[in-house]
């Protein structure tokens, strides 16, 4: 079950790291047009998570035409509505092969929504190269730190089975 927190308490720890509620913000993992992803440490439970920080105001201002209604008029929607739909889906997912949403932190008056998600230590399965506009498999999924050779056929089957189960997930 996803925890929802409607209060944001901010601070700074002894090392100068930002604190949001019980999470210490350690580093940036990535960013996109409307959000950033940070590595956070849950001090209360001694667990690392990824925090996706969504900027509500920017999403609400970005409009898109999605379709025509029965009278032929374009229906204009905001990307914030899309994000809220995605959030509703993430709240329902409980599958061991899919990154889990653990907590939503937001205040009505605040511009940001903090999504606390499981931290994938090895990163995304696919890496995107902006220069070539292509994806490649993240090398950390092919080899473990202490292994010299690639995975066996059986291990690859297990890996792919997990992906298919995740893609086929239905609640």
What is this structure, in a nutshell?
With 171 residues, the protein is α+β, with helices and mostly antiparallel strands. It has helices at 56-61, 79-92, 139-142, 153-167; strands at residues 3-5, 10-12, 18-20, 23-31, 35-42, 47-55, 63-68, 74-78, 101-106, 112-118, 126-129, 134-137.
Approximately how much beta-strand content do the residues carry? Answer: 35-45%
How many E strands? 12
Shape: globular
Number of helices: 4
Largest β-sheet summary: 8 strands, mixed
Element order, helices and strands?
EEEEEEHEEHEEEEHH
Average pLDDT level: 81
Unreliable segments of 5+ consecutive residues? none
Rg measurement, Å: 19 Å
Instruction: Give the strand order of the largest sheet, numbering strands 1, 2, ... along the chain.
Output: 1-9-10-6-5-4-3-2
Structural class: alpha+beta
**How far is it from the N-terminal to the C-terminal residue, by CA?**
13 Å
Helix content: 10-25%
